[in-house]
């Protein structure tokens, strides 16, 4: 199996020199993903909507690799405000409650002030189909 990249062509990927995800064998490493709505070309106004959209963006990336959120073994959340934690906890529990990946949450400043959450995941694809 070979290593390959998933790219979206986003401005951030070009400016900062990274791929949306790297697939190495059955391992998938998805870069930090914000709640940007690529269909509408906007960043939603609430942390809840940004969280849902970030998870949807991650799920779409994983699907490109023949994986899903159920394959996630590690997740890191970067949150811009402690008050957001209570608001996003139910969304995270709905998404990962049965999967229960190892997780870390970090409070930090974001690259852009309107960004409230960024989510990074590592997944182990369960299928053994060749790349």
UniProtKB/TrEMBL annotation:
- In Pfam terms, one family for this protein is Ribonuc_L-PSP
Q: Which SUPFAM superfamilies match?
A: YjgF-like (SSF55298)
InterPro entries named in the record: RutC-like_sf, YjgF/YER057c/UK114
Q: Where is the signal peptide?
A: none
State the PANTHER family in the record. Answer: BLR7761 PROTEIN, YJGH FAMILY PROTEIN
Q: What is this protein called?
A: Enamine deaminase RidA (YjgF/YER057c/UK114 family)
Naturally occurring in which organism (per UniProt): Breoghania corrubedonensis
């Amino acid at each position: 199996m070979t290593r390959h990249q998933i790219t979206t062509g986003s401005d951030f990927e070009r400016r900062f020199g990274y791929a949306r995800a790297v697939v190495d064998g059955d391992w998938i490493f998805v870069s930090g993903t914000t709640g940007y709505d690529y269909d509408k070309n906007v960043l939603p106004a609430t942390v809840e909507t940004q969280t849902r959209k970030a998870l949807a963006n991650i799920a779409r990336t994983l699907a490109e690799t023949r994986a899903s959120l159920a394959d996630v073994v590690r997740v890191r959340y970067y949150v811009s405000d402690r008050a957001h934690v209570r608001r996003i906890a139910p969304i995270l529990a709905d998404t990962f409650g049965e999967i229960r990946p190892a997780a870390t949450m970090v409070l930090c400043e974001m690259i852009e002030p309107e960004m409230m959450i960024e989510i990074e995941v590592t997944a182990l694809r369960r299928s053994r189909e060749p790349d």
